[in-house]
Amino acid sequence: MKRILYAAMAAATAALLMSGCNKVRKMSHLPYPDTRRDTAVVDDYFGTRVADPYRWLEDDNSAETAAWVKAENAVTRDYLDRLPGRQAIQDRLTQLSNYPKEGAPARHGDYYYYFYNDGLQNQSALWRKRTLSASGELFLDPNTLSEEGTTALVDVSFSDDGRWCAYAAAESGSDWVKIHVLDTQTGEPTGDPIDWVNFSGAEWAADLRGLSYRAYDAPKSNVYSSKNEFQKVYYHRLGTAQRDDRLIYGDPEHPLRYFHGWESSDGRWLFILSSEGTSGTEILYRPAADEKAEFRTLLPGFAHDYAPVECHEDHLYVVTNDSAANYRLARIDLKRPAGLETVIPENGDDLLEGVEPGGGYLWAKYLHNAQNRIYKYDFDGNRQADVPLPMIGSVGSFGCKDDQQEIFFSLNTFTAPASIYRYDIPTGRMTRYHAPQVAYDASEYVTEQIFFTSTDGARVPMFISHRRGLVLDGQNPCYLYGYGGFQINLTPAFKPEYILFMEQGGVVVTVNLRGGSEYGEKWHRAGMLDRKQQVFDDFIAAAEFLIAKGYTSSAKLAIAGGSNGGLLVGACEVQRPDLFAVCLPAVGVMDMLRYHRFTIGWGWATEYGTSDNEAEFRTLYAYSPLHNIREGVCYPATLITTGDHDDRVVPAHSFKFAATLQHAQACDAPVLIRIESNAGHGAGKPLSKRIAEAADCYAFLFYNTDTPYVAPAGETEE
Predict the structure, then answer these.
(1) What confidence category does residue 652 fall into, taking pLDDT thresholds of 50, 70 and 90?
(2) How confident is the model at residue 603 (pLDDT cuts 50, 70, 90)?
(3) CA dihedral for 661, 662, 667, 673, sign (positive or negative)
(4) Mean per-residue pLDDT over the chain, rounded
């Protein structure tokens, strides 16, 4: 490492100086670590030799990597802590986040259960009450499971009678979880935890005496980066040890498949949902009572998606894109399976996002231009009623048990946190159950949906949120967010940091790129595999549209995204460094040639392809952010964020991208990496860590777009 003299550090913290050309000189950062480049590491991909000088950073257990992480964090922390307004931004974010947060209640046994956060708790706790008007009592508090609030509940499920509660807890943001079971009568654990569970909660058996789950064998090497293979489905009987659990299903011939086991509520049928990646499924089945029976293929994979909804009168209901690009609801006779029968046909350009049972009916949730609509059907597909939503927004889960007559659901927008509503099934009457109180006037902000034309002529929608009366003079800072992959839809969602940004005159934009499924499977497939570049083209076209219309300018434009969205930001940054002022890639997939060699990365091959295939290698190599960085280019101010416990997109992606970009940077714009300790891919991150990270990102954004932070009236700036 280069030694840093105190004098150099003092010079870096000097006040802003005026240069001879009368422009403001930006605050400098400490020298980057002298990162070792191993020029001997070169791979041959079908005759193309590709250097990988920072491969040693893939070993996150090595002392050298640990020293590099510490040195990079020191440079980043020094820069961020000196940014003007940094503490005032964190204080305002804390205030905006400090409101009671209550989730939609659900009835289990004698209680309504709901998540509640009194304001600034790191994790929301599970509460319950006997009636809606009663005072709640604390049932399960994850904040007590770790000192720093880094243990999160990632799944909670109840037995059908409400007697047992199974919860899956993740530590430090890891995808590995441990399942525990509580007796809801006493609140005491049963004492039979289940370990090495990944991407799974508990599925309760109809006999109420056990549950199923899916797990891997304990990793033999690095827990957070080793490749996950041979997932299996087990049955666990309450009161017994995990070593005695019965294997329900495994497939030693296909180590790279996911499996999900579940039993019909009447206990007659057992199903295995299988997939080879993030899209495309297969469903197997057998009678639940016959443990010796072989599983048979009911719906073969993996050309289409089949999402089970309900097993009703020996018919399995599934939402599928088989013969319906925007999805339909279909059913198949389990006694005489002769093919799928349509129950709810495809509805034009609207996406059937999901169907849930409840109160003896089926509730279909559609996405119309990335906004939700809800319809009520009977089990033969007859439309019974439309559910009138009180405002445009996105709806969470919409369903209940068949013996219940009320549905609680959340409705979310960009400018206000989710409100909870109660829908009475017999009368169709809707009432607001809970509305959060926040420290700002939501009526001051508006959201509009606008369509722009992308490079291939397609109309692509975006949501634009800002203060009322915005002047389109090109001087507004803009935060452009996207994802564009894995059938994930970006719908209205509230974040306190959006309010902070709009208070400063900022424009928040969420764009519905190809690769999602806002318009069905055609929209998804238009942005995957050899068409992935179209996603980046959409995002770049969105940026150019916003500039052309006067919403912002290149000097004021920041782009952001996480995971696959981090790939999006990284790819667009290296393709069009002239277009953006600030880039904020979070937990991004940056090395497209080696992503499938770590943890669960192989499951993304259906979306990306892999470098093991020559044609797919050519596609990946053409846009891989890591491999398209060029020396001598001035890249935008960049703040890369990741977590040391990210075992989904391993931090080596961000490490190698940061080291390469720092080596290549040809101007003074900072390239920094912020590596959070005891944090993973993002889910379950404590509120205190989320606020601190957001404060860093927005302070970085404001400073590098020449947007002075002005504390709102009543607040004090540092």
Answers:
(1) very high
(2) confident
(3) positive
(4) 91
Structure token pair of residue 205: 């058996």
- Quick one: pLDDT band at residue 11, thresholds 50, 70, 90? very low
Tokens 């048990």 belong to residue: 401
171 three-state secondary structure: strand
Residue 595 is classified by DSSP as G
Q: Which domains does the chain have, with CATH numbers?
A: 73-94+440-704 (3.40.50.1820)
Residue 209's identity, in one-letter code, is: R
Binned at pLDDT 50, 70 and 90, residue 220 comes out as confident
Mean pLDDT (whole number) for 93-107: 95
pLDDT band of residue 224 (cuts 50, 70, 90) is low
Of 464, 683, 481, nearest to 584 by C-alpha is: 481
8 A C-beta contact, residue 124 and residue 115? yes
pLDDT for position 217: 85
Query: Is 233:205 a contact under the CB 8 Å cutoff?
Result: no
Residue (of 10, 65, 26, 212) closest to 667 by Cα position: 26
404-415: burial string, b at 16+ Cβ within 10 Å, e else: eebbbbbbbbbb
CA dihedral over 150, 683, 477, 17, signed as positive or negative: positive
pLDDT tens readout for residues 318-337 = 999 999 999 999 999 999 99
The answer to whether 29 touches 639, Cβ cutoff 8 Å, is: no
- Tell me the three-class secondary structure of 278-337, residue by residue: CCCEEEEEEECCCCCCCCEEEECCCCCCEEEEEEECCEEEEEECCCCCCCEEEEEECCCC
Backbone angles phi, psi at 564, to 5 degrees: -60, -30
Phi, psi of 663 (to 5 degrees): -65, -35
pLDDT for residue 681: 62
The rounded distance, in Å, linking the Cα atoms of 603 and 620 is 16
**Per-residue model confidence (pLDDT) at position 713:** 75
H or E element, residue 662: helix 652-664
Q: Which of left, alpha, beta for 656 (phi over 0: left; psi -120 to 50: alpha)?
A: alpha
In sequence order, what are the residues at sequence separation of 6 or more whose Cβ sits closer than 8 angstroms to the Cβ of residue 11?
28
Query: Which stretches of 516-647 are DSSP H helices?
Result: 521-525, 533-548, 564-575, 605-608, 614-623
- Three-state secondary structure readout of 421-470: EEEECCCCCEEEEECCCCCCCHHHEEEEEEEEECCCCCEEEEEEEEECCC
Q: 661 Cβ partners below 8 Å, 6+ apart?
A: 629, 635, 638, 671
Q: Name the H helices within 24-169.
A: 63-81, 86-97
Rounded mean pLDDT of 260-277? Answer: 92
SS3 of 665-704? ECCCCCEEEEEECCCCCCCCCCHHHHHHHHHHHHHHHHHH
SS3 call for 492: coil
Tokens at 29, concatenated = 């950062």
Q: Is the peptide bond before 302 cis (omega within 30 degrees of 0)?
A: yes
CA atoms of 572 and 480, how far apart (whole Å):
12
Query: Helices 63-81 and 652-664 sit at what angle, rounded to 10 degrees?
Result: 60
- What's the distance, Cα to Cα, between the start and end of the chain in Å? 33
Opening angle at CA 679, ends 675 and 683, nearest 5: 125
Residue 7 has pLDDT above 60, yes or no: no
Q: Rounded distance, CA 353 to CA 347, Å?
A: 11
pLDDT over 50 at 1, yes or no? no
Q: Which residues are catalytic?
A: 563, 681
